[in-house]
What we know:
Blueprint: H1 2-13, E1 18-23, E2 26-31, E3 34-41, E4 49-54, H2 58-67, E5 72-73, E6 81-85, H3 93-107, H4 110-114
Antiparallel strand pairs: 1-2, 2-3, 3-4, 4-6, 5-6
Amino acid sequence: xxxxxxxxxxxxxxxxxxxxxxxxxxxxxxxxxxxxxxxxxxxxxxxxxxxxxxxxxxxxxxxxxxxxxxxxxxxxxxxxxxxxxxxxxxxxxxxxxxxxxxxxxxxxxxxxxxxxxx
Length: 118
C-alpha cells in the first residue's frame, strides 16, 4: 500500500500547482482548490487499493468499466470519476500516471493549462 501511495504521490505532485491534503481521511490531490486524484485503501471496508481520478464524461466512465473491470471500478461518492486498481505486482504505473495527469487537466484552471501544463 505504501509503495502505491508513494507512486501516486510522485505522479500527482509533479504536476504544476498541486498540493496534497486529507479529504474525508484520504490522501487527496488538488489543483487550484479542485480535487483531481484520491488514494483509497480499503475505503469503507471494500478491500480495494485504488486511485480515483476524474473522467471526461459518464460515457468515458462506462467505457472504461466495460473494457477492463479488473482494473477499473466506480468509486463511491465520486460521480464522473473512475477508480484504478493499484494493488498487486502487475500495475501499469505509466498508465496510472497518465490517468492522474489527464484528471489534473480536467481540474486545472486555464492559466496552468496555457502555461504548458505537464
